[in-house]
Specification:
3-stranded antiparallel β-sheet; alpha+beta; 5 strands; flat; single chain; about 40% helix; two-stranded antiparallel sheet; about 120 residues
């Protein structure tokens, strides 16, 4: 998607039998990074409720997903992307598979919190 993502993939692949990261790998990296930032701010991981509260209070910002937030219901909100699979002749290498077609703003990409029915936010 961009040079920062490509750099992450190049560092990831050699440690993963040459396989480039998927969106799942990137999501786990982003979540763990945000968790570690919260623990660092609190200087402890001993109180899980405090860590979650810190994660929700701290905007997310990482090299893979950019800026976002963790809502009261625990959902991580960030821009989403629509990709198209490239034709073989469009690829410049073995892992050059997708082209970005659209960016969906975070506010439009996720169901509104009031429609989720989550007991954490519904009372």
């Amino acid at each position: 998607m961009n040079d920062v993502n490509r750099e992450f993939a190049k560092k990831f692949a050699p440690q993963n039998k040459g396989i480039y990261p998927s969106m799942i790998h990137a999501g786990v990296y982003s979540a763990v990074t945000h968790y570690l930032k919260a623990v660092s701010e609190l200087k402890s991981a001993g109180d899980g409720k405090a860590v979650v509260a810190q994660m929700k209070a701290t905007p997310t910002d990482d090299n893979l997903f950019g800026k976002g937030t963790v809502r009261a219901d625990g959902r991580k909100i960030h821009d989403m992307y629509l990709f198209e699979v490239k034709k073989p002749e469009e690829s410049k290498g073995p892992w050059d598979l997708y082209k970005l077609r659209a960016t969906i703003p975070a506010a439009e990409a996720f169901r509104p919190i009031k429609e989720g029915g989550c007991p954490l936010v519904s009372g």
